[in-house]
Amino acid sequence: DAGITQSPRHKVTETGTPVTLRCHQTENHRYMYWYRQDPGHGLRLIHYSYGVKDTDKGEVSDGYSVSRSKTEDFLLTLESATSSQTSVYFCAISRVGHEQFFGPGTRLTVL
Amino acid sequence: DQQVKQNSPSLSVQEGRISILNCDYTNSMFDYFLWYKKYPAEGPTFLISISSIKDKNEDGRFTVFLNKSAKHLSLHIVPSQPGDSAVYFCAASGQDHPYSGGGADGLTFGKGTHLIIQP
Q1: Nearest CB to A50: which of B46, B99, B110?
Q2: What's the CA gap between A59 and A66, in Å, rounded?
Q3: Which terminal CB of chain A, N or C, has fewer other CB atoms within 10 Å?
Q4: Rg of the Cα atoms in chain A
């Protein structure tokens, strides 16, 4: 257990509405990540953060923004949700080195 | 362009036998490789990793082999147990971040292999 929680765990929303997913860690780690998992694609990196207010884009960042105002929280925002953003979203943290540890995931459905 | 490939979507193995999961990569900048296990409705769980300076790493029933010249790695599970039934993801990391020296810019994953252990 890496001390990572995600909220909400499930969400159904409508196209065009804003959505914010929250990742919270209790271990004070510097690096945090957001991935999405889709059938036939494995996990793909959306954005990551290497410190408070320090973020960078990943492979599939279009349509997403992130914020990190505190070490323990990393927020993922869909400004205007689309059906293509229906997915399972995973947050991860990195302690030291390359290994990453994942949260339980948020299942998002955009109708 | 897929940089990490797991060409077998599924694999069925009898309980007690060896399970071998394969992974190929194309990016020569990758220098660290990881295997994750995932059950339905849960997050991926880190299993084992290997640095590019090694060709083998062992942890209990799990062994990862790396063949750099072939850009290929494999995960061996011996003996296979019913609880090993899950989706296994191969992942790779490259660029070291100046703050940690680790691959902090994120992992590149394969599409996964669904391992089914038959009783």
Answers
A1: B99
A2: 14
A3: N
A4: 13
Strands (DSSP E) found in chain B: 4-5, 10-14, 19-25, 32-38, 45-51, 56-59, 62-67, 72-77, 86-93, 108-109, 113-118
Q: Do A90 and B44 touch (CB under 8 A)?
A: yes
| pLDDT tens per residue, range A48-65 | 998 899 999 998 999 999
Phi, psi of A25 (to 5 degrees): -120, 150
| pLDDT < 50: residue spans in chain A | none
Could you tell me which residues are beta bridge partners of residue B32? Answer: B51, B93
Please answer whether residues B68 and B56 qualify as being in contact, where contact means their C-beta atoms are separated by less than 8 angstroms.
no
How many residue pairs from chains A and B have C-beta atoms closer than 8 A? 75
For residues B81 and B95, the model is more confident at B81
Span B70-88, average pLDDT: 98
The DSSP code for B96 is P
Query: Would you tell me how many other CB atoms lie within 10 Å of the CB of residue A84?
Result: 11
Contacts of A61 (CB under 8 A, 6+ apart): A46, A47
Buried b (16+ CB within 10 A) or exposed e, B76-101: bbeebeeebbbbbbbbbbbebbeebe
Two tokens at B100? Answer: 């940690």
